[in-house]
Amino acid sequence: MRASLVVLCDVLEDPIPLLKRQLADVILSVAAQTNMHVAAAVLGIDAARMSDLRRGRIARFSVERLIRLLAVIDRRVTLTVETPSRSEVRWFAILRERYGRRDAARRGEKPAHRPTTASRTAARET
Q1: Does the pLDDT at position 75 exceed 60?
Q2: How far apart are CA 84 and CA 55, in angstroms?
Q3: Quick one: pLDDT at residue 5?
Q4: What are the backbone dihedrals phi and psi of residue 66, each rounded to the nearest 5 degrees, phi first?
C-alpha cells in the first residue's frame, strides 16, 4: 500500500493537521487488521497512544513521529511539493515588497526608491 501525500490548501489554511490526518489514516488502516494492543506493541507505542490515534487525537503526535511509526511498519512517505501557476505565486512578490519596506523602516534604513505616480508622470513630460 502506498500513500500519496498531496495536500492542497489555500494560503490561510494550516496544512499540518491535514498531513497528520493522512499519515494517521495509513497507520490506522494497517492497524485495523489486528487487535489494538497488538498493533500498539508492533508500533512500539502504548495502548493509550494507539487509542489516541484511533479516536482522531492527532494533535498529540508530531508529523515526524507519525512518519517514524510508518517506517516501523515498512511504509515509505513521499512528500511532493507542487508549484502553483504563475498567477497564483504573484502574492509572494507583493508580500515580500510590502514587508521588505516595513522591515527597512524599522531598521532605520532608507527603502529602495519606488517612483510615485507623480514622479513617473513628470518624467514622461520632460
Answers
A1: yes
A2: 34
A3: 44
A4: -65, -40
